[in-house]
């Protein structure tokens, strides 16, 4: 059984699992004398897919005619268009409660999409500085995104007035703290410049408890807290039932997106001859979940419409 914070099994059994980019370098560095631990598809960094010692993965673009993780690349591009549309609709609702906070969350999710396209698209060489830095930034933005999600729920409680400095100052302060902390830990795992919050003391072990908490545990905790608070606001404070459907659907889609990463990835990779995996399905479901969060927000602020446009 894997220990808490262990990425070894995940990186070898889950194709295109982005955070595995942060561990490849510690094994591939000739000075580490650990290159012999890279086997199979991961042995050659020039062609290696996203992951470490994968039994099935999408080879880097250009390898034996590979076009990379093309399915997820296309889905990420289409999801960007969807997010831009949702941002436009959000901006039209000038008087809606929590508009600024929701906009900030949508912008963060939009930023994750081109980062995901680059970090798990099998476009860049494994272990390269560029891929490591982009993956670290991606991890930091994702961790910040889930803080933004939770902050949207807290704003809906109307403890402080939304859109004011009393609301936005804590939002941006905590966003900066989460972003910087996750970025530092991610870079330390990949580059090992301090080893304070970096990888395990065993250089051959793919393990980092801080990284696991921020990229795996924290998103789940934040999502559960968000949906719990929103159900309380809708059912307990607003005394409405209909808008709960959007939030329940968002929660279900989010859960299925995570299952797609871990359960469908290897199955689809083997079935397609290493051409696609579960990442594109996960991205579709994640984008749909964000869209339903928007619809839920629209449903509980519908009296604030200042025009005749309906989604």
Oligomer: single chain
Spans of 5+ residues with little confidence (pLDDT < 50)? Answer: 303-311
CA-CA gap between termini: 47 Å
Category by helix and strand content: mainly alpha
Radius of gyration: 20 Å
Largest sheet: none
**Could you estimate the helical fraction of the residues in percent?**
55-70%
Q: Compute the number of helices.
A: 9
The shape is globular
What fraction of residues sit in β-strands? under 5%
GO molecular function: unfolded protein binding
Keywords: Membrane, Transmembrane, Transmembrane helix
Pfam families: Chs7
Protein name: Unplaced genomic scaffold GYMLUscaffold_57, whole genome shotgun sequence
Task: Write up what this structure looks like.
- Helices cover 62% and strands 0% of the residues.
- The protein has 311 residues and is mostly helical.
- Helix 3 runs parallel beside helix 9 (279-300), helix 5 packs antiparallel against helix 6 (165-191) and helix 5 (129-156) packs parallel to helix 7.
- The protein has helices spanning 8-13, 21-28, 70-92, 99-119, 129-156, 165-191, 209-237, 244-271, 279-300.
- It contains nine helices and no strands.
- It has a domain at 8-219.
């Amino acid at each position: 059984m894997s220990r808490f914070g262990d990425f070894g099994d995940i990186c070898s059994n889950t194709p295109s699992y982005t955070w595995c980019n942060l561990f490849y370098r510690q094994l591939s560095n000739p000075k580490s004398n650990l290159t012999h631990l890279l086997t199979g598809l991961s042995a050659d960094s020039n062609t290696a897919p996203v992951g470490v010692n994968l039994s099935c993965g999408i080879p880097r673009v250009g390898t034996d005619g590979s076009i990379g993780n093309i399915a997820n690349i296309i889905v990420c591009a289409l999801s960007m268009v969807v997010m831009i549309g949702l941002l436009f609709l959000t901006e039209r609702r000038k008087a809606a409660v929590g508009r600024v906070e929701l906009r900030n969350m949508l912008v963060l999710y939009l930023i994750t999409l081109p980062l995901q396209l680059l970090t798990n698209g099998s476009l860049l060489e494994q272990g390269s500085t560029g891929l490591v830095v982009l993956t670290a930034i991606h991890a930091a933005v994702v961790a910040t995104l889930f803080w933004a999600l939770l902050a949207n729920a807290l704003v809906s409680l109307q403890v402080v007035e939304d859109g004011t400095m009393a609301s936005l100052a804590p939002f941006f302060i905590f966003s900066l703290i989460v972003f910087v902390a996750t970025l530092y830990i991610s870079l330390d795992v990949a580059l090992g410049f301090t080893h304070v919050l970096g990888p395990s003391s065993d250089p051959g072990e793919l393990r980092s408890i801080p990284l696991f908490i921020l990229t795996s545990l924290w998103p789940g905790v934040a999502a559960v807290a968000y949906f719990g608070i929103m159900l309380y606001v809708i059912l307990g404070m607003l005394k409405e039932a209909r808008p709960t459907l959007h939030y329940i659907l968002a929660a279900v889609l989010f859960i299925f997106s995570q299952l797609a990463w871990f359960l469908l990835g290897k199955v689809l990779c083997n079935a397609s001859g290493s051409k696609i995996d579960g990442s594109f399905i996960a991205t579709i479901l994640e984008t749909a979940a964000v869209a339903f969060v928007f619809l839920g927000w629209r449903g509980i602020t519908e009296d604030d419409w200042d025009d005749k446009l309906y989604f």
